[in-house]
C-alpha cells in the first residue's frame, strides 16, 4: 500500500510535471513563434529603414550637388553683376566725358561764333575806315596838288620880278629833299613853316601804318579768294566727272534695256520650245499606246510630203502667226509617227522606230539642258549689269544731291505701253533691228535647233530610203 500510495503520488506529481513541462513548452513555442515573427518584422523594418536611409543619402547627395551648382551659378551671377556694374560705371564715365566734351564744344562754337561776329564787325569797320581814308587821301592829294601849283606860280612870279632871288632859289632847291610816296608830296622846298610840317609828318606816319595794315588785310583776303577759287575749280572738276559717270550710267541703262529685250525674246523661244517638247512627248506616248494599225502607205506618203514641205524652210515664219520652230518640229514628229504607224506591222521596223524616238528624246533633253545653262548665264550677266547700274545710281545720288538723284532716277522709270500707231511702228522697227542683229550673231540655241531639224530631216530621208527599198523588194517578190 505504501508503495501504491507512493506510486500514486509519484504518478500524480509526474502528471503535474508533465503538464507543467507541456505548458512551459507550449509557452516557449508560442514565444519563439512570436519572437520569430517579431524578428521578421524587425528585419523588414530594418530593411525599409536602410532603404529609406539610402534614399535619404542619395537625396542628400543630389541636394548637395544642386546646392553646389546653385552656389557656382550664384557666384557666376555675382561676377556678371560686378562686370555689368563696371560696364555701367564705365558707361557713366564715358557719358560724363561726352557731356563735358559736348559742353566744351558748345562753348567753343559759341566763342568761335562770337569771334566770327567780331571779325566781321572789325572787317566792316576796317572797310569803312579804308573807304574814308581813301576819300581823305584823295582830298589831301588834290589839296596838295593845288597848293604846290599855287606856290609854283608864286615862285615864278617872284623869280621873274626879282632876278637876285634866282640864285637863292637854286641853292635852296639843291639843299632840300623832295620825297614822293604813295602819290603825294611829303616834303617841298616851298614849305616855309616848320610848325605846320610836323603834324603833317605825324599824319603821314599814321597813314602809313594804316596803309600797311590795309595791305596785310588785302593779302589775307587775296589768299582767301585764291583758296575759294581752288575749291570752286575742284568742285567743277568733280561735277564734270559726275556728268561723265552719268553718261556712262545712261549707256548702262540702254544696255540693260537691250538685254531685257533679248531676255523677253529668249523667254518666248523657251515657251515655244516647252510647248514643242510637251507636244512631242504627248505625241510619242499616244503613238506608243494607241497607235493606228490600219494606216495606209498613201496616208504615210501624204504626211511625209507635208512634213517635207514644212521642214524644208525651218527659218521661215508661219502664215498663221505661230512660232516657226514649233510648226517644223510638229510636222517632223507627225512624219515620224506616220512612219511608225505604217511600219508597226513589222517587228524589226518597230524596234528601229523605238530607237529613233529614244534618240530624238535624248537630243531634246540635251538641248533642254544646254538651253537652261545658257539662260542661267544670261540671268547672271543681267543681274551683274543691274547691280552695277544700281551701285552707279546710288553713288551718283549720294555725290550729286537730290537734283542729280532725280536726273538719274528719271531714265530708270519703266516705259509706258505704246498706244499711238507711230509708237507701234517704232516698236516694230526696233523688233526688226533686233531680229537682224540676232540673225547676224546667231546664238548657240539657234544652232542647236538647226542641228535638231537637220537630224530629223536625215532620219526622215533614211526612213524614206528604207521604205522605198522594202517596196522594191515586195514588188520583186510578187
TrEMBL record:
The keyword Iron-sulfur does not apply. It comes from the Eukaryota. Residues 285-328, 459-478 are annotated as: Disordered. Residues 46-143, 225-276 form a coiled coil. Residues 295-307 have a biased composition (Acidic residues). Residues 308-317 have a biased composition (Low complexity). Keywords: Coiled coil. Belongs to the CDR2 family. PANTHER family: CENTROCORTIN FAMILY MEMBER (PTHR19232), CEREBELLAR DEGENERATION-RELATED PROTEIN 2-LIKE (PTHR19232:SF10). This is Cerebellar degeneration-related protein 2-like. It comes from Sphaeramia orbicularis.
